[in-house]
Amino acid sequence: MAEARMPSHLRLGVNIDHVATIRNARGGDLPDPVRAALQAERAGADGITAHLREDRRHIRDEDIARLMEELKVPLNLEMAATEEMQQIALRHRPHAVCLVPERREERTTEGGLDVAGDAARLADFIAPLREARARVSLFIAPEAAQVEAAVAVGAQVVELHTGAWCELHAQGLHAACNAEFERLRRMAAHAHALGLEVHAGHGLSYETVGAISALPELAELNIGHFLVGEAIFRGLDAAMAEMRTRMDAARA
Ligand code: PXP
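Above: inputs. Below: predicted complex with pyridoxine-5'-phosphate.
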């Protein structure tokens, strides 16, 4: 088998969910997450990610409709693998659909999707999305069984969950942090060797983005919470520009 080529450009996908979180805290229309998406696009985002949760706690249905209408860069629609969400994705036909696990009580997406434990259902779920030409991505923990199951169910992309690694980094637990990073490194290589496009995301910040960007198999990072927080102090353009600089420096 010919060796798969390494991606030349590491894309930055900007997740705008947390702009919607602030909007929804007051129940009105401001701040507008679509405005944030368009500004991120102008500032060089390679794509926009938005998670339509079943409880609509941040992104709403009309946000997805407007993002589809107004964005020029690709939309990555994050969603749970439910029938309602499948119908929404088939109606809007975003560039990419990222399937994530979802429990109402969690504050954010906590674990990865159990692809290996739900393979038959996910294969049926993914087939119509692929027929609608969506690139289907699965948000998974860096485990070989999940990577291999992602291939088996017909996904083209895996997004490796960096949340546990970032959390260990923040707590200064160096040995556990290094072990988790090693899992990410090995699974990025494994997924790429199996022909999957490899993304990563969750909890990334200026402190962690360099190490993850240096993994040559990665094609995309999806970053939200840190960038939206940093934008409060510096503006979104400056916050993104520094992230881009750090990604490029690590890749060089
Ligand atoms: N990727 C996925 C699949 C996610 O669920 C999230 C969080 O919504 C992110 C990336 C972005 O994570 P963060 O907001 O912590 O940067």
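DSSP finds eleven helices and eight strands in the chain.
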